[in-house]
Amino acid sequence: MSKYKKDCFLAIEKVGFLLSIVCAIHCLTLPIFLFFAPYLASSFAFSSNLEWILVISSFLLAAIILVLDYRKHRQPLPLYFLGVGIVIKLLDMFLVNQSYAWLFGILLGVVISIAYWVNYTHKKSCTCKINA
To answer: 28: which residues sit within 8 A by CB, 6+ positions away?
Structure first.
């Protein structure tokens, strides 16, 4: 892999990690700001549209990055964490009422962040020269 492609790939990976952290922070601050809900009701920052934008973009970036790294390094643990994140989101969508949605959002952001972290630590210690 050329240095330019490697740098570009690392930048995309950092954006994905940042999105999962932003998602967790967004879900953590939501209950705190519910007190101000009447004033923030029309705010885009607390709308379901932003939630779906964060979730879909986080899942897409994570899936692309983690699958490509899996093909190169054969380390399945980050993909397991991604799968756990998908299960958490599905449970949130189908089983949980809205009063616990923030908890599932925090769990989702943390699990995706852990997937990135595990993937990153493996890549740093990996000495393989396999091309994907």
So the answer is: 102, 105, 106
State in Å, rounded, how far the first CA of the chain is from the last one. 9
| pLDDT over 90, % of the chain | 5
Cα(88)–Cα(72) distance, integer angstroms: 27
Q: What is the pLDDT of residues 80-119, one digit of tens each?
A: 999 998 898 888 888 776 677 778 878 888 888 888 888 8
Long-range contacts of 15-20 (CB under 8 A, 24+ apart): 15/61, 16/58, 16/61, 16/62, 16/65, 16/116, 17/113, 17/116, 17/117, 17/120, 19/54, 19/57, 19/58, 19/61, 20/58, 20/62, 20/109, 20/112, 20/113, 20/116
For residue 92, CA distances in Å to 20, 87, 96 come to 16, 8, 5
Residues 72, 132: contact at Cβ < 8 Å? yes
Q: Where are the domains of the chain?
A: 3-34+46-125
Is 89 within 8 Å of 55 (Cβ atoms)?
A: yes
